[in-house]
Amino acid sequence: MPIIAIRFVFDGGTAQDPAGKERLANLMTGLFHEGAGDLDSDAVQVKLDNAGFEMSFGAQRDGINGSMRMLSEQQDAAIDLLRLAVNRPRFDQETVDRIRAQLSAASSPMSATPRRSPSANGGARSTARTLIRGRTKVPK
Length: 140
What we know:
The chain has helices spanning 24-31, 41-51, 75-87, 93-105, 123-131, and strands at residues 3-11, 54-59, 63-71. The termini are far apart. It is an alpha+beta fold. Strand 2 and strand 3 form a beta hairpin. The protein has a three-stranded antiparallel beta sheet. The longest helix has 13 residues, at 75-87.
């Protein structure tokens, strides 16, 4: 069975965290797969598990990155979920508090060192721009 892997980076990252709100980008990326649109965190996880998708996000100094792996027969559903996660994330207070606590409890600080982006070839970046429209807002 063919597998499709998507990796993307878009502008942003920890360098844009406001003073006094360090790790805001990390919080945002931690919430992308914790509920989207009408789907709460549990519903997103069930969709990921049942269809065999893998979806992850992260924040580096100069960019927000993400990746997704799926079976080719699940491509449409997977891309729809990815689009929903990035364009309409849910910032439910209970989930925000849980992810914030996880970030605070991390034994080592998140890296602020620029790293080579997974889309260094540029192709994934343009694909992401095609697939994902709009901006997301992180709660205050």
